[in-house]
Amino acid sequence: MTLVLFLEQTLNGLQQGVMLFLLAAGLTLVFGIMHLINLAHGSLYMVGAYVTASVTLASGNFAIGVLAGMAAAGATGVVIELLALRRLYARDHLDQVLATFGVILTVNELTKIIWGPQALFLSTPTWLSGTIEIIPGAPYPAYRLFIIAVGLLVGIVLRHLIVNTRLGMLIRAGATHREMVGAMGVDIDRLFTVVFGIGAMLAGLAGAMAGPMLAIEVGMGEKILILTFVVIIIGGIGSVRGALVGALLVGVVDTYGRAFLPMIMRTFFEPSTADSVGASLSSMSIYVLMAVVLIWRPRGLFQAYGG
What we know:
The structure is a single chain. By secondary structure, the protein is mostly helical. 74% of the residues lie in helices and 3% in strands. The protein contains 11 helices and 2 strands; from the N terminus they run ααααββααααααα. The chain has helices at 3-34, 41-59, 62-83, 93-115, 142-164, 166-176, 178-183, 188-210, 220-235, 240-265, 271-296, and strands at residues 131-135, 138-141. A hairpin with a 2-residue loop joins β1 (131-135) and β2 (138-141). α3 (62-83) packs antiparallel against α8 and α10 (240-265) packs antiparallel against α11. The mean pLDDT is 87.
């Protein structure tokens, strides 16, 4: 293993972690504040990816496509919250799981009707298609660095929103003293709709960023949802800071596992056996990480607001 390979895999892990953070930040806000288990969060990620690809291909401008993807995911999230999820806040978590699973099926079918069953493919924008030499002899894709920068910027903006603004104060208060906030004249239903819309826009942004790297297809949101839940459990439900730290940890551990465990296993086994054992161990690595964190801190690395 060389220093260049280690650096490349570290950046790959950070990039994957940032993608997970964009998804987990919105989901942990909804879960931690509204106490709503939203399995349909991945569907908003898918909507963001599809709309970004369609608008980018039509306009030729990736930035416009990203804004359109975020807006579409946010609007879809608000409609889902108003029509379906608002009635579930006081219901059992099992009811929420069943209802949001129904939303997944509905959105998937609507997506097939609008875009068809074939996958869409979006090229990396020209201005981000090159590489940047981080250290001599180690070029790295500019688009992956762009994703890392976007994710960190979103983290800073979210922290400012929650810590320094009136909306953030209401979000923090609403997480633990919902009735008190309502008694002070704040429209809790509207606050929850805003929170859900913000979470949906973040999911749409994650989908937009993933568009040039993945096949955009029906069901793509469900594939990444389990990892997203692992992130918010590790970071602490309801904590955006925890979502960021948890996402980076999961991204780096998962990438290191897939890159290095097969290499390590080759010192003990034949290449074919080592690859098989290494792949199996790497797929377990993030769950081992989650178990270790929960043994150490049963409520996650960071407490939620007022937790």
